[in-house]
Amino acid sequence: MSSVVVVGAQWGDEAKAKVVDLLSAEADVVVRSQGGNNAGHTVVVGNDKFILHLIPCGVLRPHVVSVIASGVVVDPKYFLEELGTLRSRGLAITPETLLLSERAHLIMPYHRLLDTLSEGKKTGVKLGTTGRGIGPCYADKAARSGIRVVDLLDEETLRSRLEAALPEKNILLEKLYGHRALSADEIAAEYLGYASELRPFVRDTQKFLSRAFDEKKRVLFESAQGTLLDIDHGTYPFVTSSNAAVYGACAGSGTSPRRIDKVVGVLKAYTTRVGAGPFPTELSDSLGERLRENGQEFGATTGRPRRCGWLDAVACRYVARLNGFTSLAITKIDVLTGLEKVRVCTAYRAGARTLDEFPSDLRTLESAEPVYEELDGWRESLGGIRSFAKLPAAARKYVRRIEEIMSAPVEILSVGPGRDETLWIGRGKR
Questions:
Q1: Which CATH number fits domain 3-104+202-263: 3.40.440.10, 3.30.565.10, 3.40.50.1220, 3.30.1330.10?
Q2: Which of 24, 35, 191, 387 has a CA between 20 and 30 Å from the CA of residue 412?
Q3: pTM, rounded to two decimals
Q4: Could you confirm whether domain 268-423 is CATH 3.40.50.10860?
Q5: pLDDT digits (tens, 9 = 90+) for 343-396
Q6: 63 is catalytic
Q7: pLDDT digit string (tens) for 186-208?
Q8: Which of 21, 28, 41, 53 is catalytic?
Q9: 214 flagged as catalytic
Q10: Helices 155-171 and 184-198, packing angle to 10 deg
């Protein structure tokens, strides 16, 4: 492995964390390059389960340096709480093994407030935000009124940036939402308290990564969310606030695309979505509930039940084209065990039209009816299988069908949550 980007190929929650954890065994550096603590990455190590929201999965490997790059938005209080929790569980995380970009933007108290208060206010549509201030922080970044980690390390700069930002925020809070005004002094006092604890972790991570590449280090990029939640190419406005596709890794870390050797797309053997937004293959019946219960489809960040449905080949082809996957990791295929038939949506029916391309028009996508093909299911348990050849014939056929849809070979097939519940079928073991 040299440099690899792991990308979600659906609406997030594809079990990317397990794939990143597996690949990090051969990595020197693991990088988070976008998103914030709205992401929930779950990794099972033996009898232990770790749920990470902001800190990269690389911290579970002692030999790996984990990097929170400049494209991530960071809540300093949450960073320190998560760090403390991980250390309390025996992880030896130090400023040498966890780096925080000095250029990363900070989530401020008004970001969290505005995120919660504004949900559904502007359009009357609830987008399903986590309420953790991610969107408002990215909005300030784009408006050039954000506050970065490097600003936190200088009291005069922090106070100056706060005093410039707060008048507008307080007008919104007081006049639009009826909330009390916030105090620059109170916020400064709180955040300056975080500064001394954060300072040892703060680095020029772009320079660090450039040197790592020059030294032929193995770098693994851990994307948050999934491509269909990408701010530019997802199901807008039901999206996240950053670029969740492959190009987000480059922009968010300051890495040239020429440095990337491999792009691994992660997708579930079925489809899920958290929160609002179009979902053509959603199953609002007992079968959808069965997938939810068997797959434990509840958000790691919010605990919200995930909406479940069949695999959507129309969306998958679109995502594959955007990312140019070199290989795939299929997760949770074991959840489909016991079904007599397995369905794949190959096209949409929109009125008199049949669509085989993923539409950008939200109204078309919301009204689209899936056109399905059926494949045989399987009843044999997959949990103890470690060879592709030993999978039930119907399961092998399903995997090959996904390869056709995505135009990429499957490298990893997950048959359970544990590290060992994995088939490396792209490494001469097919």
A1: 3.40.440.10
A2: 35
A3: 0.93
A4: no
A5: 999 999 999 999 999 999 999 999 999 999 999 999 999 988 999 999 999 999
A6: no
A7: 999 999 999 999 999 999 999 99
A8: 41
A9: no
A10: 140
